[in-house]
Design brief:
The complex is a heterodimer of chains A (365) and B (486). Chain A is an alpha/beta fold. Chain A contains 18 helices and 7 strands. In chain A, β4 and β5 form a beta hairpin. In chain A, α17 packs antiparallel against α18. Chain B is an alpha+beta fold and 486 residues long. In chain B, α4 packs antiparallel against α11, α6 packs antiparallel against α7 and α11 runs parallel beside α14. Classes of the chains: A alpha/beta (365), B alpha+beta (486). The interface between A and B is large, with 96 and 89 residues.
Chain lengths: 365, 486
């Protein structure tokens, strides 16, 4: 994967003097004689460089970058100073434009870099809706991505916009394309979310650095570590759902009731928010008594609107998709989950109007 | 006469400026926002209640404020008043958002322009944290691996090694502080960025003793850091900033006011008002009907007349030859206005800013604009504890009201980015009209007839060969292209 030394994190701390000493010792022990030292030092010098990272922003709101800054393990300053070499970022790079674009060209020429792409890629009207700065003036984002990803060792599409079009799918006029469809010969890692949790994005990069390979990915090329479970399945309010204790307004939600009737999209969204939580576990959408709006779902936002309308019955897991026969089997085996599922299914089927009728306006003060 | 296009990085967001010059001096410029996300179109036909949760996705840096702005617009359409707890929670959130935005703008975007990292080897002091940082940076430079930082000499850069290292340490601390502010924002807003708890009718978050405690102790740390670093860092780079008291000038300012300090909003943290033609002592009334948008030089269909946002239109014409930006040209009484922290501090007649301007004998300029970011951050940091203890644990934060089939709503609010407004119309219970303006729409406006936009105008007179100075002046506005072109 990354050819710059097996474990870049462990080797970055050498300075040049330490290097020369180390490489001389190395060359002697390898039987090359001391004169080979400088040559090996040169090779090692490349090795101790932190792996280069390019962050390319398309039709973006800057939210992915803002979220990444909230990383804690590692913190963003640790990441910059010690782990990666952020060679190109319109949001963060220092220095004049000449230096910036020269760095970009050098990285791309050498290859084996990591690229993060955030923001959508609108293809309509020859890319007129998002032109990025290049050394030769504004150019269509799609072309810029192709040029700078060809030689990369890993490409990460950060956020809903880059990984599946996200909220920018809501305007067909833009004709947005996911990064994976633009770079057909590359394996693009998708990190959805609007924005993604910093752990999802930075965690993926760090795991590439430590293990020198891509993390395990699902069918949508999302790291299974973060996106294999349904929010609904780990929701702390699942008990209220099973008990049919639904909030009719946000006042009800404040007493811990299930937000299903208010339109919660936890049933249609795969992400580990309930266990990971946000901003150093301070909070997350459902803990704040609000709905999961499904921002990590590939249906966000166009296919999830109106947000305040309950998930249609056919999309309710267990009750909608598992056949009654299977639920019955589970009951026979006697697992608690099976019984609960069967109960839930009965309850939900009993309420015929649930997926068509918006929640009643009742003030539960 | 010649012209040249300069990419504007930090903040990013596909901003560029074309400068025209006659020899030594810039005679005119054209600021372009080259990307657009069209939320004014995305919102059409949606359930109005979705808007606060979607408006936060207009901008990843200022989303919490935009979510609040959208909720206020809807509440005005529904003719409803929110609870006291909700008002206070929103003030706290808006305040934190402003602090976050200003700290990020100064430390991550402006400060790098003033530091000469090549001098750090000269540091012979004993401060262990600076020695460690020096070693770390030296190692990176010797491995030619200093990115994203850059070692470049330049005019008006700080060359005292200890000062550079201290400021560099603050750059790194600022990243942690931003993180802590986001944590406090998440306590109130659910998460940051992309808040969840701001809804039509109030806030979903419950006010508990635990929340009050957590907010108090998180903000205490923030206040301490702001007091010990932000203003003093501006002073530390003052020798480099002095020349910028004479350039990047502005004469017209607008503030929508905001952050109601009592139930009816008679008292506000930010004053509403106008400063016109450089008369800094006269604060005029702001008449909302005098706001208009022209798209003559933007990539939108131009029908030959300006429109008030209440019946504004968003129809793209991306290949329009005359166009050069996705930002519309925003005027107040036919004048281009500056918006943002400098405008707010001038209209609030902030004593610190007035004294600074008098002592240095300078007009509103790049220097006072940069300083306003620090002054305002300090003002807000000091007010936060007062707001937090206004919270009443156990009392309501949310009121329910159904969406009427037809209604119109408006919200004018100062956010971190500046004078932000939303105009919505509801027909058959769906959004039929949504127009949005923000502080950066004012500042990054392309020219309107013979008037240049505020950023465009501020560059006139600079040396066209000095990219660094041009970038410094543009960055003094902390421009936000996502908010501006939305």
């Amino acid at each position: 994967m990354i050819s710059r030394g097996k474990s870049p994190i462990l080797s970055y701390k050498f300075n040049r003097k330490q290097f020369l000493k180390y490489s001389s010792a190395l060359s002697l022990s390898l039987g090359y004689g001391a004169s080979a030292g400088p040559k090996i030092a040169k090779a090692l010098e490349t090795a101790v460089q932190k792996p280069p990272l390019l962050w390319i922003e398309g039709q973006s709101c800057g939210g992915c970058t803002a979220s990444a800054l909230n990383s804690t393990a590692p913190s963003f300053s640790e990441l910059l100073l010690e782990m990666i070499s952020l060679r190109f970022s319109e949001s963060l790079s220092w220095g004049d434009n000449k230096t910036l674009f020269a760095r970009l060209d050098n990285v791309v020429k050498e290859g084996k870099h990591i690229v993060i792409i955030s923001g959508a890629i609108p293809t309509a009207e020859n890319g007129a809706f998002c032109k990025v700065n290049t050394k030769t003036g504004p150019a269509a984002i799609g072309d810029f991505i192709k040029t700078n990803c060809e030689s990369a060792s890993a490409v990460i599409a950060s956020g809903g916009c880059a990984s599946n079009g996200g909220i920018m799918n809501s305007l067909s006029q833009f004709k947005v394309t996911p990064v994976s469809k633009l770079l057909r010969n590359k394996k693009v890692i998708n990190i959805p979310g609007c924005p993604p949790h910093p752990d999802w994005l930075i965690g993926t990069i760090v795991s590439i650095l430590i293990f020198s390979k891509l993390p395990q990915l699902d069918d949508n090329n999302r790291p299974t570590e973060f996106f294999s479970q349904l929010i609904h399945d780990n929701c702390p309010r699942r008990g209220s759902f099973e008990a049919g204790d639904f909030a009719e307004s946000f006042n009800g939600a404040q007493s811990g009731k299930c937000l299903y009737k208010l339109g919660c999209k936890g049933m249609r969204t795969h992400a580990d928010c309930p266990t990971r939580k946000w901003n150093q576990k301070q909070n997350w959408c459902i803990q704040s008594n609000s709905l999961c709006i499904g921002c990590a779902s590939e249906d966000f936002y166009e296919k999830l609107d109106p947000l305040f309308s309950p998930v249609a019955q056919k999309d309710i897991p267990v009750a909608g998709k598992v056949k009654a026969r299977d639920i019955g089997k589970a009951v026979l085996i006697g697992t608690g989950a099976g019984i609960a599922a069967n109960e839930a299914a009965k309850r939900l089927h009993g309420r015929k109007t649930m997926d068509s009728e918006p929640p009643k306006e009742i003030d539960e003060r | 006469m010649s012209a040249r296009t300069i990419p504007i990085t930090r903040p990013g967001g596909h901003l560029s400026v074309e400068v025209q010059d006659k020899g030594e001096k810039i005679t005119g410029s054209r600021v372009s926002v080259n990307s657009v996300r069209a939320f004014e179109l995305i919102a059409i036909g949606r359930d109005p209640k979705d808007l606060p949760l979607i408006a936060s996705r207009i901008c990843g840096r200022h989303g919490s404020s935009l979510s609040v702005c959208a909720a206020i617009a809807l509440e005005s359409a529904l003719g409803m008043e929110i609870t006291e707890n909700a008002r206070v929670l929103r003030n706290i959130l808006l305040g934190l958002d402003i602090m976050h935005s200003h700290i990020r703008s100064f430390f991550l975007q402006m400060l790098p322009d003033y530091l000469d990292l090549s001098v750090i080897s000269g540091y012979s002091g004993k401060d262990p944290s600076l020695v460690e940082l020096k070693k770390q940076l030296e190692n990176l430079v010797s491995a030619s691996d200093e990115a994203p930082f850059s070692v470049q000499k330049g005019e008006n850069k700080i060359t005292d090694s200890a000062t550079v290292l201290i400021l560099m340490k603050h750059y790194s601390e600022a990243l942690d502080i931003l993180n802590q502010i986001s944590q406090a924002m998440a306590m109130v807003g659910g998460k940051a960025p992309g808040p969840s708890s701001i809804v039509t009718g109030g806030m979903t978050i419950k006010v508990t003793l635990d929340l009050v405690n957590k907010l108090i102790f998180t903000t205490r740390k923030l206040i301490k850091w702001v007091n010990n670093t932000f203003l003093s860092d501006i002073l530390a780079i003052a020798p480099s900033l002095m020349p910028f008291g004479k350039v990047g000038l502005s004469d017209n300012f607008i503030s929508f006011g905001g952050m109601a300090l009592d139930r009816l909003g008679d008292k506000r943290f930010f004053d509403r008002g106008i400063i016109a033609d450089g008369d800094l002592t006269t604060i005029l009334n702001m008449e909302r009907n005098e706001i208009n948008e022209s798209v003559e030089n933007s990539w939108f269909q131009w029908e030959g007349k300006k429109r008030h946002p209440v019946d504004g239109r968003t129809r793209f014409e991306a290949d329009k030859l005359k166009g050069y930006s996705f930002t519309k040209s925003l005027t107040y009484r036919d004048k281009m206005m500056e918006s943002g922290p400098l405008a707010r501090m001038l209209i609030k007649q902030d004593p610190t800013l007035l004294k600074l301007s008098q002592d240095l004998k300078i007009r509103p300029s790049a220097l006072t604009r940069i300083a306003s970011h620090a002054i305002e951050t300090k003002l807000i940091a000091e007010s936060l504890p007062d707001w937090i203890i206004e919270l009443k644990p156990g009392e309501q934060t949310f009121k329910n009201k159904s969406t009427p089939p037809f209604a119109e709503g408006i919200s004018l609010l100062e956010t971190a980015d500046g004078a932000t407004g939303m105009w919505i119309r509801i027909e058959k219970s769906l959004i039929s009209h949504f127009q949005f303006i923000s502080g950066s729409t004012w500042n990054l406006s392309p020219r309107e007839k013979d008037q240049a936009g505020p950023v465009e105008r501020s560059l006139v007179g600079l040396d066209p060969k000095e990219d660094l100075d041009i970038l410094r002046v543009v960055r003094s506005f902390s421009p936000c292209s996502a908010c501006s072109a939305h």
